[in-house]
Write a structure and sequence with these properties.
mainly alpha, 79 residues
């Protein structure tokens, strides 16, 4: 089954742009930012854009500093 990158980008973007209105939302929004950053970093479904990837990673860490700190830090090292 082929991967639908356009649908993935749309869903991750929608999630990443959500306003966090409760504690339970932090991990969902942060994960959307992480996935969106990953897709931009490696050019999956979009043109490779390291600056945009970095912005998404920082937003994810900002939204949920304790949740995705290690994976985001590792991905930022590769930029």
């Amino acid at each position: 089954q082929p991967i639908d990158y356009e649908a993935s980008i749309a869903r991750y973007r929608k999630t990443a742009e959500m306003t966090v209105t409760g504690e339970w939302m932090k991990s969902f929004v942060a994960r959307g930012c992480l996935n969106l950053g990953f897709m931009h970093q490696f050019g999956l479904g979009v043109a490779q854009d390291l600056q945009t990837a970095k912005q998404h990673y920082h937003r994810g860490r900002e939204v949920d500093p304790s949740g995705l700190h290690t994976p985001v830090t590792l991905l930022l090292l590769f930029l």
